[in-house]
Amino acid sequence: MKILFVCTHNRCRSILSEAIFNQLGNNNIDAKSAGSHPAGEVHPATLQHLQQAGYPTEGLKSESWNDFEDFAPDVVITVCDSAAGEACPVYFGKTLKVHWGLADPSKIQDSEEAQARAFEAIIREIEERAKALNRFATINLEGDALRVVLNRLGAN
Q1: CATH (domain of 42)
Q2: Which domain holds residue 6?
Q3: What confidence tens digit (pLDDT) does each residue in 84-103 have?
């Protein structure tokens, strides 16, 4: 199953999702991430917390969704509310689209400890979704059946 995670700036939540789903997907999931208006760089705390959680960060970068026309994802998952409201490029026309609103841990500015707790919590949330979706990826769900599963995972 090919998944494209989309967030407006592609510097935190979509990057976290790409890294975690690729590692926990056991070759059943090929995840990429992109932004409608990419920042051009991954948030440093994103890379730091992925590494601390044991995820590889090599090759992770902030990219435009226009760079993924040839990727042909099975699913586009928006992970921020502003990206969910944007019109996707035409080449995603028949691709299944769902929204998983994830809190942005990089916006926590109270203290380093508070931001670290926020990153740890969102990483755990994404891990649970990745593990659950991996179980379904092996049975090749499509269409409405896949949409139901994805919407349930996004509601957790």
Answers
A1: 3.40.50.2300
A2: 2-155
A3: 566 666 566 778 888 898 99
